[in-house]
Amino acid sequence: MHNAVSKRAALVVDGDAAVRDRAETLLGETDFDVVVCANGAAAVDALREGGKDFVLLLTTATLAGEIGGHRLARQAGEFRPGIRVVMSTGTPETCRARMPDAAVCTRSPWLPLDVLVQAHAAMREPRGPVA
């Protein structure tokens, strides 16, 4: 039987295929529909398409390309107000200064439990707009 209710989606964006695979496997064990992208431009395209109910973005501050991690976090909030952004970084204490208020910074490499805590929160309580 086909479920008429769409699953909430998580967008995983990282230039490292091993990190993307790890996140996809972890979040795939939850109730998320997981979409993976290798760069910020592909992620923005996925957010613009509108076919998924994205409530979680997992990315890295060091995302290479024209659309880096911080810019992606801001654009995600523009396209999907309420999306929970989780940014991995080597320096979470300085990451906060450059991040939108609704974003969470976690040490890189991220720990599965940290991601799962944020994933559960994204399912339960969407955050305010990312500004």
From TrEMBL:
Domain annotation Response regulatory: ranges: 9-121
Stored InterPro entries: CheY-like_superfamily (IPR011006), Sig_transdc_resp-reg_receiver (IPR001789)
GO biological process, one term: phosphorelay signal transduction system
SUPFAM superfamilies tied to this protein: CheY-like
Superkingdom, taxonomy of origin: Bacteria
Identification of the protein by name: Response regulatory domain-containing protein
Organism: Methylobacterium hispanicum
